[in-house]
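Name: Oxidoreductase molybdopterin-binding domain-containing protein
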Amino acid sequence: MTFPGGAVSDESDASRGWSRDDQGTPPDEFGFPVRVWRMVARHRPPGFGRSRLWRSPLRGPWLTSVLGAVLLLGLPPVIITGLLSYAAYGPQFGQAMPPEVGWLRLPPFDWPVRPAWLYRLNQGVHVGLGLVLIPVVLAKLWSVAPKLLSWPPSRSAAQLLERLTLLLLVGGVLFEIVTGVLNIQYDYVFGFSFYTAHYFGAWVFIGAFVVHLVVKVPKMIRVLRSRSLRQMLGTSRAETRPEPVDDDLVAREPSEPTLSRRGALTLVGGGSLLLGALTLGQSVGGFTRPSALLLPRGRDSGEGPNGFPINRTSEAAGITAESTGPTWRLVLLGGPQVIELDLAGLRGMAQHSAKLPIACVEGWSTTQVWSGVRLRDLAILAGVPMPKSAQVKSMEGSGAFNQATLQANQVSDPDSLLALRVNGAELSLDHGYPARVIVPALPGVHNTKWVEMIEFRSR
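Structure predicted for Oxidoreductase molybdopterin-binding domain-containing protein:
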């Protein structure tokens, strides 16, 4: 038996749709005795089920449906770009994090190198749009708060399953927002792996989101069609009235409106635009970068040709001027012989320049002019003219990204370089001196700095 809906407040049991003496009522459709739901209703936690707290006349199916429609359009690109970011890290080489995801493993494919700004666009959309949608998510949660905090949480086993799905949806989106924002602001503040938690948290949210769409989209469409958008947005504050009391979201004793529905949507939209303005500069870069007041972890390393963001300094990586001095050698493996080159030997090879971006998972990016030796020329020198992959190892002794495996297309691209210079100047120590990898459309952390070894693999 399913009891009638409605936000539960301090009213008696009778107002909830059943009486205290209905011992003979048959069980619900899942076989649960009705007295179970009645007992749950009588043990209300503090703060739950108090409808008098939710008296705004703006709440109702229409406002909730409008906010839901915005999220329906905005969240899928965030989800897709997040999964594509994982794919760009090369899970087929075991270097994406988490490396083992079981049946949640994405189909393996070679991440493209063209256009060169592909990963920059992907992460700019993922981080930027994710931040822009935060006010919409919070407004949506505000609009459904009476239903989220109603008591009892369910009046049947079927409704209990729906509420559990809703718990996963709300918990999932809040977890992704909080961990994502902290990751782009601070340097590893978590007591756990952000990448692992964010990936599995995303799948929890995705599953709940799909179920929620199946259940709620028909009602959302019906509600939006039932009222004229122009009329609803054209209603002034003085003319704002609650929607008909036929839904749990509508206040039974509404207060006087302090804002029209148009004003509420304008407030939410203004918050999204503000977050966008404070974020855009970190992805676009150039003269817009000072406007990125929501600063990411990428830090500027001074003025001049090397004055652009970095995530990890040479000091943090344990790289010193002595270790990169005259004794430094680049070791090339994979062919019949081991090849060693010093910096003078690399400078004596054919040099190539390319204007390429570096884009990090946190959303910041920068485009610079890099010069150095093509990776494919180094592969030929090593004796592997058509490598299937290449493993690049850094002098950095520890860290999750002190080495990277490159795909065949990433090695063979004419703009893939072992860079020795940037913007006409020698690389600074923080930017990877004496040599670093730079590859089109590659996630920033895989553009390995302080390279000491490259192994070209023919299989």
